[in-house]
Structure formats: C-alpha cells, structure tokens
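Structure tokens
________________
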Amino acid sequence: MSRSTISTFKLFELFPDAESARLYLEGRLWPNGPICPECKSGERITTRKAGFYRCNACGDFDFTIRTGTVFERSHIPLHKWVYAMYLLVTARKGISSMQLAKEIGVTQKSAWFMLSRLREACGGDDELDKLRGVVEADECFVGGLEANKHARKKQNIGRGPVGKVAVMGIRERGGRTRANVIENRTIQTIQGEIHKNVEVGSQLYTDEHVSYADLDGLFFKHDTVNHGVGEYVNGAAHTNSVESVWAVLKRGLHGVYHHASRKHLQRYVDEFTFRLNEGNVQRHSLERLASFVDRIVGKRLTYARLTA
C-alpha cells in the first residue's frame, strides 16, 4: 500500500468509537483547549462530563465540539462522521448516499443529509487568495439531453445546452481550481467570475467564446484556442487542465450520483473542487482529512434549509 494512504482497517483502529473521534476533533479544532463557539474565548471554560463544556463568560453557555459545525444537532456518532469525511476526501468520484448508508449503518435519508452537510463544508473559498500565474477558464453544461426527458420537462426551444445548467471553472496550471454554477454565459457573468477569482496581470487562456472578448490588455494577458475549427492547442494556449475538471465532475455525477438538481448542484461542484484542491495523492490521507476538518466550523446546514 502507498505510504500516503491509510487503509479503512487502519482508520477503524485509530477511531474505534465516538470518544476517540471526539478527542481527535477537539485536538484538531482546539489545539490550545476548548474555545467557546459563541464568544470565541477559551478563558472561562469549565469542563463537564461526556465531552460537554460550559462557557461562564457567556452566562453558563453549554457546548460540545459539535456546536457551530456541520455536526450540530446530529445524533450520528462522531466516529461515523470521521469515516464519512475520510470517504468523501479519498473517493475520487465521490460516494453515494446509498453506499455510505451501507458502510456506516444509517438510513439512506440520514446518509444523504450527512453528505449534504459535508458538501456545505467544501464551499466558501471566495475569501481565499485569487488564482494567479497561468490560468485557464472554461464552462461545461450539466444535465440530461432534451431528447431523453419526459415530454412535460422538455423546454422545446432548441438543442445543445438547452435545459442544462452552466458551470464555470477557472484553474491554475498545476494549482488550485474554482468552479461555480452560473445563470448564463453573458459577458457580464463570465467576465465577472474572472475578475472575482483571477489576479490582475495573470496569463489567461480560454476558448474563442464571445464572452471572453476584450480581456487582453489592461487586466490580463489573454490568448485563446479556437475549438470551433478543431484547434485545441495553440503554442502554450490550451484549456486542457480545466477540461480535466469537467471529466472528473461528469464521471462522478453520471456514474456515482446519477443526478444532481439545479438546487443542489453547487454543493456537488464544491465537493469535486475541494477534492481537486486538497486531494493530491502525494499528501497523506490523514493530512487531507485534517484539511477537511479545518473547514467544518461555521458551516452548519439545517434540514429545513436543505429541503426548502
């Protein structure tokens, strides 16, 4: 077995029960002792039993490691959550709720809610540094073919991307990826995403779509490839790196999840983007797991909001 991979058997040895998982999560999120999720202070904390703590500064506010995280108000034991995170981080194309339910012994509904919560933790990269250097941008369309849809679901306004959802991806060559569901492919939308996510002065490579027009000059160095005439490489210009993102995304959506509605699609996109950014197989599985744990704070998702 690769030295950068931990087996499922070994993971179970590390986290055999909820208590071991609790100690791991507390050590990762509170390396210097418990921190109150309400006032963000660790000065007046009283340790209680069974993983409970009380913040006297907040007026006897009781909390656990679950409070203020994706685990809040979940009755599923923490070691099952840790295993679910491990599977999400290491499964290249994702894991279905049916499979997760079998793996950890919960209902499919609970497994789906767990995965939705974990996908919520994968998002929220907008505050990170912008992409820089050599950057590629492209869009893909997610959804079934119009010809395969039930008559009442067809829009009957053409072919191609009709009835599908557009996703825009931006990727540093050899680096990070950003991807977001977009409402349309207008110049305002496409170039707005680029200005929001790409550092000024970067080298930008795209296809010849009209929405990328006039990017070369003041803000970016921009070159294109003309896919319309069968050109896919023009010197250093190509979009192969970002198109590899679509290859993984579509294989996962079609082969594992089978369907992702427009309503939930951004969370699925966030999941795949997180794995691309943090899932380098040269990093040990436990490092990737720790990167995920670092993101669970402040990402609570209620069932009411998920299904609204």
About this structure: Residues 166 and 265 are 10 Å apart (CA to CA).
